[in-house]
Amino acid sequence: MNEENFFVLFIETMQNRWDDIFVALQEHLFLSFISIVIAILISVPLGIFISRRKKLAEPFIAVAAIFQTVPSLALFGFLIPFLGIGNITAIIALTVYALLPILRNTYTGITSVDQSSIEAGRGMGMTSMQILMKIEVPLSLPVIMAGVRTATVLTIGVATLATFVGAGGLGDIIYRGLTSNKDELVLAGALPATILALGFDLILKLLENAATPKGVKAKK
Amino acid sequence: MKRLTVLLLGVLMVLAACGGDSGSEESDPIVISGKPWTEQYILPHLLAEYIKANSDYEVEVDAGVGEVNILQQALVDGDIDMYVEYTGTGLEAVLKESAESDESADEIFERVKKGYKDEYNLVWLEPLGFENGYTLAMTQETNKEVNAETFSDIIPASNDLVFGGPHTFYEREDGYDALVEAYGFTYKDEVSLDPNIMYDALNEGEVDVIPAFTTDGRIARFDLATTEDDKQFFPPYYAAPIVRQEVLDSHPDLEKVVNEFAGNISEEEMSEMNAKVDMDGEEPEDVAVEFLKDKGLID
Amino acid sequence: MITFEHVSKKFADGTEALKDINLHIEQGELLTLIGPSGCGKTTTMKMINRLIEPSGGQISIDGKPISDQDPVELRRSIGYVIQQIGLLPHMTIAENIALIPKLKKWDKSKIDKRVDEMLNLVGLEPSVFRSRYPLELSGGQQQRVGVIRALAAEPPIILMDEPFSALDPISREQLQDELVKLQKEIQKTIVFVTHDMDEAMKIADRIAIMKDGEILQLDTPDRLLRHPKNEFVRNFIGDERMAKGQAPTAVDLMIQKVATVKESRGLAEAFRLMKSERVDSLAVTGPEQEYKGVVTLDQVQKHYEGDTKRIVDVIEIIEPIQRNTLYPEIAKRFAEKQPISIPVVEGEKLTGLVTRSSMMRGLAGLEQLGYKEEEPLNE
């Protein structure tokens, strides 16, 4: 099949199958988004917690790292006997996968905040919560955002495997194309997934810049 | 000297890449493939063991390569030599034709045989003796509500039902879209599933209706309710080996040997073999050998 | 205003940082805590705002024990300035200064006014510096902000932990001068930790010299120079500084090799000795070099007839002076009593002799080190 033909076929496929693709896109967004949000809700407080108890830091981060080292498909597979198939399984697998970058960056961010700022704050009469919210979090936010960014791109990619646990997403389209030997369909699933990942990466990069306190950027 | 080595390596790599040639010689092993699900893991071994026992030919099994579109391409490219296909699939998915309502299964067989030979130079050998068609299956519990015996009975209840099928089912010409159109189903949702977890999904309630294979051992073992294709949407699906003409030419006894094997497997027997793998955890190869021995087809 | 009673501190690893600290800091005074590293000066200071808690003893402010107060509230009423400055880099200068007032929920307009007031106090033009960020300022400017940040909420007490040590020498000197000037205006109670004796001398009302968790001496700079309690303190202050700042002592002005004679000896011997040593007086010592008195040529000649007389019969008692007696006092003695010489003792032992000429010599030598005579010699 020559390139021109393929290109035409691809465009046609995008047009004809748009309904399916759009549904898959929505499912993909849903799975990715929920998983990232849950991962943030777990990892950021946890990261703050272990920054206060450095002895716990290593074991916690090590566990998150193990989760991430498990090949993503295998992770989905492990969960099936316990949780069955469907969205819940997919979300749990994706969340677990996204924990490490966010956890590690939160920990690193908070522990690398200049101690003299914290000491000055404490000496002047700020409570621990005030120090956390007014000093530690604002100063570590850029690093945390970078972790979220990494996790997001990762999650969107791995979410293509959700199809194997019957949770839908763009993986459906890709895999349908693979099994029916229709390359144009594969691309029709892969391309939106790629654009999604790039798009979020860009948005989060802008957020990361916005989160960097002006004073820190203004370094001479 | 270094330049020469690099050049040599380059040439070797190109030659290796060119390697899968479409030609065939008697000394080449016959490669039998199949689809990535239980019945199709067993069938290549049945054929392979039988051929080996009854000829001097070398046979290799390369199982689970892919669904019809991939296998078809692989045959045409010469990457595989033989696999077992179903007449209905060949007709609708490959030849892209539809069955006439008054055509008999034999007529369809002949049509497919001719079509494959003319278009692809692929040969359909004699049917193995069983049909593996589609039934829409539900759990007994679901069917208490739906109360269906035929596909049409499902129509009114389909609003509340979630359909789950393999990825290819949605892409085949004889698949989901055509089925829905033919019957007017209005399923609440459709889920793409790997065929191997389809049954688990059904039992867990993640999906309500699946297009199950009639010879799937799990139907009996899970006590699923099956329904009949009353509008004859699906064509007959008689199982027969298809093989490349070149291989038949280079292996003159092959056709005779395989056709001797024809007609030896009934639906019940296939279903039981499937169940042994799916439910009892036996290996497809062992189940195949056991069957052949029990039937005295090999020693 | 701030009182330490028998305060001790032992850290978890067993280090005894403070042994038995008793201290009273007056309202409005600038007290510096100084000593070698590990002496406990920073620990002492940090106990005032309860960043470190004592293991024993009690600290009170205005009579109220601080252990009864909420530490956070306490700290908000005490200014705190640290060596690394610690301005929050993500906040503007104005926001940094306003930090505690904001926590204390001051009125916004009150805060704004105060911020401008503070910036003016240290010569940083508000319109320029309010919206700048710490990292855009020089070290000296940053620490000025550090200081006014501590002052912003009008605390009566300010703690400063080596605040100028990390700055370049010029900024350091400027800020020391500014602090002295500021203190004249604001009269806060300031506890200032430093390891720099010059700095302490320059700014302090009183200095506490610490070593190994104890206060060795707590005095005004002047008294410290004149009456260092022991060798360590002396050395810590440094001879140079003493020479620069205070009057010389007998030690600096005396002859060390003194011609001595035992009191049981006869006059002829005395005479002979004086002749050979070319002196006109001898110091009379006992068997263990303890000072007994002086015998002059005059006296010897007067009583020479009559073989029987011994030194002990003609001995004159000139009251000796201790080693660390200051020059002005010595000069006064010469003027008033007109002795030939004044013996110098350490305890009871004779260590030297001060004569007019040795005194002159001593003064001349010290002048080279920068000593300036404040009181004229009255002879």
Describe the structure.
The complex is a heterotrimer of chains A (220), B (299) and C (379). With 220 residues, chain A is mainly α. Chain A has helices at residues 3-16, 18-52, 54-69, 72-83, 87-111, 115-124, 128-158, 170-179, 183-211, 214-217. In chain A, helix 2 runs parallel beside helix 9. Chain A is elongated and about 70 Å long. Chain C is α/β, with parallel strands linked by helices and 379 residues long. Chain C has helices at 41-48, 71-76, 93-97, 99-103, 108-121, 126-129, 139-151, 169-186, 197-203, 221-226, 231-237, 239-245, 250-253, 267-277, 297-303, 311-314, 327-337, 356-367; strands at residues 2-10, 16-25, 30-34, 56-61, 64-65, 78-82, 157-161, 189-194, 206-211, 214-219, 260-262, 281-285, 291-296, 321-322, 341-346, 349-355. In chain C, the strands form four sheets. Chain C has a six-stranded mixed beta sheet, sandwiched between helices. In chain C, helix 14 runs antiparallel to helix 15. The relative contact order of chain C is 0.10. Chains in contact: A-B, A-C. Chains A and C meet through helix 6, helix 7 and helix 10 of A and helix 2, strand 6, helix 4 and helix 7 of C.
As residue ranges, the low-confidence spans of chain B are none
Helix content of chain A: over 70%
Strands of chain A, count? 0
Which runs of chain A of at least 5 residues are low in confidence (pLDDT < 50)? none
According to DSSP, the number of beta strands of chain B is 10
Instruction: Provide the spatial order of strands within the biggest beta sheet of chain B.
Output: 2-1-3-10-4
Look at the structure and give the mean pLDDT of chain B: 89
Number of helices of chain A: 10
- How many helices of chain B? The count is 15
Structural class of chain B: alpha/beta
Entry summary:
Chain A has 220 residues and is an all-alpha fold. Chain A is built from ten helices and no strands.
Topology (SSEs and partners):
The complex is a heterotrimer of chains A (220), B (299) and C (379).
Chain A: H1 3-16, H2 18-52, H3 54-69, H4 72-83, H5 87-111, H6 115-124, H7 128-158, H8 170-179, H9 183-211, H10 214-217
Helix pairs in contact in A: 1-9, 2-3, 2-5, 2-7, 2-8, 2-9, 3-5, 4-5, 5-7, 6-7, 7-9, 8-9
Chain B: H1 2-18, E1 30-33, H2 38-54, E2 59-62, H3 68-77, E3 82-86, H4 87-94, H5 105-120, E4 122-124, E5 134-139, H6 140-146, H7 151-154, E6 162-166, H8 167-171, H9 176-183, E7 189-193, H10 198-204, E8 210-213, H11 217-221, E9 224-226, E10 239-244, H12 245-250, H13 254-261, H14 267-278, H15 284-294
Parallel strand pairs in B: 1-2, 1-3, 6-7
Antiparallel strand pairs in B: 3-10, 4-10, 5-8, 5-9
Helix pairs in contact in B: 2-13, 2-15, 4-5, 14-15
Chain C: E1 2-10, E2 16-25, E3 30-34, H1 41-48, E4 56-61, E5 64-65, H2 71-76, E6 78-82, H3 93-97, H4 99-103, H5 108-121, H6 126-129, H7 139-151, E7 157-161, H8 169-186, E8 189-194, H9 197-203, E9 206-211, E10 214-219, H10 221-226, H11 231-237, H12 239-245, H13 250-253, E11 260-262, H14 267-277, E12 281-285, E13 291-296, H15 297-303, H16 311-314, E14 321-322, H17 327-337, E15 341-346, E16 349-355, H18 356-367
Parallel strand pairs in C: 3-8, 3-9, 6-7, 7-8, 11-12, 14-15
Antiparallel strand pairs in C: 1-2, 1-4, 4-5, 9-10, 12-13, 15-16
Helix pairs in contact in C: 14-15
